[in-house]
Hints:
Elements: H1 41-44, H2 47-56, H3 63-71, E1 82-85, E2 91-93, H4 101-107, E3 116-119, E4 125-127, E5 132-134, H5 143-157, H6 201-211, H7 214-223, E6 229-232, E7 243-246, H8 252-265, H9 275-284, H10 296-322, H11 333-347, H12 351-355, E8 358-365, E9 372-379
Antiparallel strand pairs: 1-2, 1-3, 3-4, 4-5, 6-7, 8-9
Helix pairs in contact: 2-5, 6-10, 8-9, 10-11
Amino acid sequence: MRVKDPSSQGDGVMTKKSRRPKKPQDDDSSDEVLGSACQHTGRAVDLIQVKKAVIHNHWSVCAECARTLKAHDEESDVSPNIWMCLKCGYQGCGQNSQEQHSLRHFHTTHLDPHCIAVCLESWIVWCYECDDELIPCNKKVLTPLMDFLQKHATKTHSGLNSKVTRGQDENSECSEIVRGKHTINNTAVPVKGLSNLGNTCFFNAVMQNMAQTHLLSDLMHEMKEKGTKLKICPPTESNLDPLMVILPGPGSLTSAVHLFLHSMKETGKGPLVPRILFNQLCQRAPRFRGFQQQDSQELLHYLLDAMQIEETKRIQSAILKAFNSPTVKTADEETKQKVKVYGREGVKMNFINQIFVGELISTVMCEECLHISSVKEPFIDLSLPIVEERCHAD
């Protein structure tokens, strides 16, 4: 079978068939709004197998090329044109490379089809059987897999302030703390117990997870000190220059969280007593007082929202100080507009937004005119059902 070169227009850029007969869409095909009507995703995509392969293999490295380099005592580098099979997690170099290992893997005989692959640089998904690009958001089976791969890519080779989202690299220099980029610290945090303050299991469960969130600990360490410099770059259309601000000290709750995370890293016998942090949280959310059982997710919401408010006020205060204005009300109209623009960009740079805030895109298509509209909504967490896999008897 002749397969079109998916990389013929550059690394990770696919070309579509110019002449494809339009197929009528069924009324119930809700996951095929646009893009290729690929029929192979059901058998050619395996989330569990891909996760296993990603965990046990190097990221964005061609497996076959790595073996060749290892035989010659050479070190393998991360290639910008690596494609991953979404059936088994195999990583191979693209068709614009000399060896074309990704294409060879597709042609290898398998029990199930291994025809769908994703470029780990551009996140384009391609079906070799259909010889066409797939739209991940319109394939329900692809959405959780793409989310997992992009999050793993972020942890593997991104700086603290860069997120792996398509097309989000334009202003990377402007979103960095002046001290420079730092790689994520993957050093394991010692597992330490937390004392129960009286039916505070819900609180301890959340904080144990927070303690193992390495990115949170690293970013809070960067932003914890008074006098930290932050460079805010407004959008190009605003015609404003980048603004350097000096942050005041963090809020009391944020400081308590940082102290808690630091204490969890210290080696020592016995559990940690998180009374200071719990008291700070209860001052902002009195509902958690009284030593009654509470919901962990609600506590997480209150904790993240409170820290986000503290950091937002901290950044806005620094912006006002840069304009020698104690409050927005006392500033003139021109200064108010500038403060508004810088504030909108500066708020995005607080560590809560960088780590926990995502964007939910709702896409609706009109059945009459086929017009597609999208609405973006920020979210701080998502509630997902846990589906239990059941073994069907023969």
